[in-house]
Amino acid sequence: MGRPYGPQNNDGVLYDVPTLGNSQEESVVSYRSAAVDGDDFVYEVQREFELVPDIEDELEEFSRLTRMGDFRRAKVYFTNHLKDHIGDAFVFIHYAEMLLEAGDFRSIVQLEAHAQNVFPSDISRTQRPYLNWKIMYWIAFSSNQHDMRKIFAEMRDAWLPVDPDGEFDSTQIRIFCLLIRLISTHRRLVEPLFLPPDPASWIDWRATYQQLLKENRIWDLRDILAAFCIWTRPLWGSFERIFFECDSPTTFFQRIHDDWMTTEADESTHLTLLEIFSLLALSATTYDRSTRFSAAAILIARPISETVLEMYPAQAITRPILYWLLATSTEELLVQSEAQLSLSRPESPGPGLWIVPKRLGCGIPYYMPIKSDNPGWKALEMPNNAKRAVEMALGAARFLGDYSLQVACLQELIDWSKSPALLFDELSKIQDQKQGDLYGHLGTCLSQYLLCETEESKRLLRAKISAFGFWENFEYLPTNHVLSLAARDVLLMALSDEEMAAFDTSIHAALRFSDWLPGSVRQKINYHVKGRSNINPENYPDRRFDIVEVGRGRYEYEPEYRTARRHVQSKLRKKGSHERLRTQPREASRPREYSSKSPAQHRQIIRTKVETPHKTTQQAKQQIRGSLLNGRLRTPSPQI
After folding, report:
1. Per-residue pLDDT tens for 198-215?
2. 476 burial via Cβ count (<10 Å: 0-12, 13-18, 19+)
3. Do residues 464 and 510 touch, judged by C-beta distance below 8 A?
4. Structural element, H or E, at residue 295
5. Within 10 A of 6 (CB to CB), how many other CB atoms are there?
6. What CA dihedral angle connects 5, 7, 8 and 13, to 10 degrees?
7. Region Disordered: which residues (predicted)?
8. Residue 310 CB contacts under 8 Å (≥ 6 apart), including other chains
9. Which of 283-299 are b and which e, b meaning 16 or more Cβ less than 10 Å from the residue's Cβ?
């Protein structure tokens, strides 16, 4: 039989690959027995074998190309050497991982039909290869489809038996990292998983870090840190509590550098550390809008980048180097610009609502008008040195076939361009025709409203966003997706002279999404729709409610929490009920009922919540209102 899959040592290997070997698989077994001297039996066993080819070297090379971000060559290599073995579960999973890293969501969704042959219907839904594939499929499906109910239904069947305290090898790490990536945008998916809401409490990450260090599994560390830098907000104040104690960002990165950059450090170690530091720096500038964490990462990583370019010049066009270029240019722009990315902090925001998505590199803001108001595109010009670096990274990403990195570079260039029309066209084609990123493409189209200056441009944009179709069920979507749908309906009305002539406002088109939007957006809608509210959100002293930042971090629901809580407190004060207010500080990462609970207790709490449906809508609203008053960030998940 073939040797079982297990984590491999990192020496000279850029990824942990399954050890298949040149094995013989048993196909026929026959038995014949005969009695000798009463109780003795002699068994004659005849076994026939068929040869399974050794593809370990091919898988290792394919994984190396994937890790270096050379997806164009990886696809060609797979076609020439591994395509005939795609029926093998490990080969199939490696191919799907390559597509996910490249950002090719459409191809992953199309693999579902072939997956039925790789994973038959009678296979256990708790097997790690199956779970690995399903989570990748759910990530791609959530970016590619209108309705998310399928994910909720499949998760309840597939993930429930998984034990977070079980064996934690490379496959399990990959599963957890994919899961963190999935629930970072779909926060309500924590409930059908029956896991604690904060991944930091799933396992002992400090012990895991020491285990990875002992076994020299630096690529597994890269996957973990990349997952947590999407989930954890802000980065500093959370990371050091997860993996080890430290007193500053500099000591955090220095600890990682000193632990892994030993005298035996090879090409793989240098490239992986450079990618780790670049990803963390890029995440800090993108999500936190802070240079404290990113500057520390870049300071430690700069000598590594110089070493890579000097000692390994053949790796000059690889994903770690390109992430480094993008991270340094983004950090430089953040330092130079007091506006912190021009459109993200508009000086004259207009009467409508600005939404600033948080994505890798930069999120392009879009605008939700009250009527047909349009503040226009008012961007600053990117400094030449930063522009050259981003354009260099974009050109290399095109050559490598890295769709995700192309999108990040184009978004950065667009946000700092006075005439971004051609860049918008290229970005739209990548998201629509290559990635199959439905919601990313929708957000790009929404941003183009700021460029509409003529009747012809308005007509073309209206036709473009109308082609996305109709979302009948949106209650299973994450908040940032619902916000995009609401903005789309508002723009469809604002871009139509006939509809604007029949209604006072265009923002009332977002009313059907109202219950699923952040509280600050609901206040804006209700205030501008006659007869719904007389509370002017402009009177709030915190202007963050006007520029809603919808991200994939911990504070995704914070604007809704803070706005609704302040509104409820204001009403209670008017009634003289000061003693009813709860002002105790809330925990940063989890609701209070999850404090000091074991993983089993966490799962029981969530199981009780999921299996107890709300009897009436009024009871659900009362529970939400009580949760907001008590300082809880979570909202109940709708029942399937």
Report:
1. 777 778 888 889 999 999
2. buried
3. no
4. helix 291-311
5. 11
6. 100
7. 566-640
8. none
9. bbbbbbbbbebbbbbbe
